Amino acid sequence: MKPREIVPDVLYVGAQDFDRRLFDGLIPLPDGTSYNSYLVRGRNKIALIDSVEPAKVHVLEAYLEDVHRIDYIISNHTEQDHSGSIPWLLTRYPQAIVLASETAKPMLADHLGIDPAQIRTVADGERLDLGGKTLRFIYTPWVHWPETMSTYLEEDRILFSCDWFGSHLAQTDLFVDCVDCIKAEAKRYYAEIMMPFRKIILKNLDKIKDLEIRLTAPSHGPIYRDPQSVIQAYRDWTDDKPHNTVVMPWVSMHGSTAIMVEHLTTALVERRVEVLPFNMATADIGQLAMALVDAATIVVACPTVHVGPHPAVFNGVVLANALRPKARFAAIIGSYGWAGKMVDTIKGAMPNLRVELLPSVIAKGLPKPSDLQDIDALAGVIAAKHKELGLI
Ligand code: FEO
């Protein structure tokens, strides 16, 4: 199989994974994904930037059939979907040296059993001249592990950003062909793994702001011919100011919580607040994560199972807590049969959310008129809070 040319002497040797439907045993992949690997040929040396998920090593092997020497294997990121085939590469190219950040070196040894003697660390800003192709290593920590770096090819002005600016999308076209479509895919990707680190991502964005970039070549999804489109999108997503949106993960067992969700949705819409409800019995958690990127308020709408929260909604709370969205306000509504600690359990599960907790509305059994009045009052408080932030 012939490597695919990106620009002269920069070749694509990665793998498309059309059938994968779950990442980390957690993240839905409705459109598959790809593991992009790039070969850079200088006059004197040859470097491979990132490898592929081990399950797809046969694709990498096929692309490299006629490549008889690789001098450097650049590991931008230790997670196995990019580094997992490095041990195989080192058996095929035993003279190759793995280049990685200082933090990555012990991680590559821990996660993949790579002999540290085969790994050379590169410093932030260090250059490597392959002969007419100069690679510059730029530390970009926490996109999304502590050791991550990006590699910039100076002559061709290509930024190899690994997960950063990536998207889970399998397609045969190596380039972005629809900027609006890819923005949704990239947002889903940002939401699922980058969002907890948005403050550090802002610093990384500042770090590359003066870099002249012609192509952004991530290690998932297509390559950007218009790199500023995704860079600007990252600026918007990481910005502190939320949107006039309420995200509402909910489930209803016998209809009580559903009545409250419907009533609150109507009351908020009447107050010009957008609502994104997610029935957690069937929701795609990737879409929930995307909604959390911009929302100003999270309303958890939960019935009580025995004495605790419904596990499907609680799962959404745990996810939101892990993703650390920029939301400013939160509230809990829901119902119970006879007693319970649902509210306290949910509150205790979201210590990472820097939110002002608004009054809870909890109904015993079917919501009564007084409960619905309390829901109206909650809608009023949410709308007022959004107005204070200048969102309405
Ligand atoms: Fe695509 Fe963090 O690995």
Write the layout of secondary structure elements.
Layout: E1 4-7, E2 10-12, E3 15-17, E4 22-23, E5 27-28, E6 33-35, E7 38-41, E8 46-49, H1 57-63, E9 72-74, H2 80-83, H3 86-92, E10 97-100, H4 104-112, E11 119-121, E12 127-129, E13 134-139, E14 149-153, E15 158-162, H5 179-194, H6 198-207, E16 215-218, H7 227-238, E17 243-250, H8 256-270, E18 274-279, H9 285-294, E19 295-305, E20 308-309, H10 311-323, E21 329-336, H11 342-348, E22 356-357, E23 361-364, H12 369-388
Parallel strand pairs: 8-9, 9-10, 10-11, 15-16, 17-18, 17-19, 19-21, 21-22, 21-23
Antiparallel strand pairs: 1-2, 2-7, 3-6, 4-5, 7-8, 12-13, 13-14, 14-15, 19-20
The protein binds MU-OXO-diiron (FEO).
Residues 77, 79, 81-82, 144, 163, 220 line the site of MU-OXO-diiron (FEO).
Nearest-integer average pLDDT? 97
Report the sheet with the most strands, covering strand number, pairing sense and barrel closure.
7 strands, mixed
Helix content: 25-40%
Low-confidence residue ranges? none
> What ligand species are in this complex?
MU-OXO-diiron
Query: What is the radius of gyration?
Result: 24 Å
The total count of helices amounts to 12
Total strand count, please?
Answer: 23
* N-end to C-end Cα span: 56 Å
Oligomer: single chain
Q: Which structural category fits the helices and strands?
A: alpha/beta
Question: Judging from the principal axes of the Cα atoms, what is the shape?
Answer: elongated
In what range is the share of β-strand residues? 25-35%
The strand order across the widest sheet is 1-2-7-8-9-10-11
